[in-house]
Amino acid sequence: MNNTVHRPPSTINRLFDVYPLFDIEPIRGEACYVYDAEGTRYLDLYGGHAVISVGHSHPHYVAKISEQLQQLGFYSNSVQNKLQVELAHKLTELSGCQDYRLFLCNSGAEANENALKLASFVTGKTKVISFKKGFHGRTSAAVNVTDSNKIKAPINTTFQAEIHEWNNIETVKNSLAQGDVCAIIIEGIQGIGGIHIPEKAFLEQIEKLCTQHGAILILDEVQSGYGRSGHFFGFQHADIQPDIISMAKGMGNGFPIGGVLIYQKHEAKYGILGSTFGGNHLACAAGIAVLDILKNENLLEHSATLGAYFIEQLKNIPQIKEVRGRGLMIGIDMGEAIKPLREKLLYRDKIFTGSSSDPNTIRLLPPLNITKNEVDYFIETVTQTFLSVAS
Question: How far apart are CA 316 and CA 379, in angstroms?
Answer without folding.
Answer: 10
